Amino acid sequence: MTTTSSIDSSYYLDSQKTRTPSATLDKDDFLQILMVQLQNQDPTSPMDDSKFVDQMTSFTNLEQVMNISEAVESIATNQTVMSPVLQYSHMIDKQVTYNEYDLDSGEITDTITSKVTAVTQNGGYAVLELENGKSIYADAVIKVSNE
User: What GO biological process terms does the UniProt entry carry, in alphabetical order (predicted)?
Assistant: First the structure.
């Protein structure tokens, strides 16, 4: 009697390509499906013209929706890169409180409150122009009030 050993499945399973399913289809996937469908249709009974037109319309609609989606995404991305002047313009006519520091020791020497008269920009950062003649960076503000 001859005995056979079991087949080690790692020899043939490891060589197979693994496919990861995707929850979304892009326009290339849609076009690929359409082309396979056209290639594999029955020559004696080709696809109805109206079905083909419907599928091409679906493809065009998909492409337009994707273009709109990309445009909206671009607008949303650019919206986050707003000018610091616009971002802090609401602080004009508000009272802001900030600390002054000793340059040598780094300790707080005074806490000052003044009204914001203008907002400018320096090196990409918002600078608040104050009624007391000083200019401070917006991130130096420790308190904002209406008066």
Answer: bacterial-type flagellum organization
Residue of 90, 91, 127, 134 whose CA lies nearest to 112? 134
Q: Which fold has domain 84-145?
A: SH3 type barrels. (2.30.30)
pLDDT in tens, 95-144: 999 999 988 898 999 999 999 999 999 988 999 999 999 999 999 999 99
Q: Where are the domains of the chain?
A: 48-81, 84-145
